[in-house]
Design goal:
178 residues, mainly alpha, 6 helices, 7% strand, extended
């Protein structure tokens, strides 16, 4: 794999450094950067949601000492891209980001297992997390659409020897009036 450049702090307007042991330091390019990421005007809520993002991460996933494993900016960028619109979506976006990181972590553990019982245990965890993520995606979809699903059913009768066209039909043709 080639060299991967880190996202610039100004991509999100947030720079995260430190660790759980030394304390996380959050630098904001603009005062409202966290509020924009979490889709809220409430700075206290945005700070609490940031804290919720950091809690499920292992020490090496939230530390300057392990930049290749650091998931902090990734989680914030996923939440920003999900563009939460209300409190339910904000909490769900944090859960989805954490679930994704946990799923990838379980996959890594499964890939590095030394024996069958370890592989089976990590496979079970990986599978449950992947299903949870799919359920979260569906919950977000239903929340955003009000649970509505649209199905259009059309019934067409065609007599023997007749033809039916399914789709949009335009009249007119080359050189003709449309």
């Amino acid at each position: 794999m080639g060299k991967i450049e880190k996202a610039k702090a100004d991509d999100l307007g947030v720079k995260v450094s430190g660790s759980a042991r030394t304390g996380h330091k959050i630098e904001l390019a603009q005062e409202s950067a966290l509020c924009r990421i979490f889709g809220t005007s409430d700075e206290m809520q945005a700070n609490a949601l940031l804290s919720h993002c950091l809690k499920p991460l292992k020490a090496d996933e939230a530390s300057d000492e392990h930049p290749g494993n650091d998931e902090r900016i990734f989680m914030l960028s996923v939440i920003r891209d999900l563009a939460p619109r209300d409190p339910v979506e904000r909490m769900l976006a944090v859960q989805m980001a954490a679930t994704h990181v946990a799923t990838i972590r379980a996959g890594r553990w499964m890939a590095t297992s030394d024996n069958l019982p370890q592989v089976q245990a990590h496979y079970t965890g990986f599978n449950k997390l992947a299903r949870t993520f799919a359920a979260q995606v569906e919950a977000l979809r239903k929340h955003r659409t009000g649970g509505e699903q649209r199905v259009t059913v059309q019934h067409v009768n065609v007599s023997d020897g007749g033809q039916a066209i399914v789709g949009n039909v335009k009249t007119g043709g080359r050189g003709g009036d449309e």
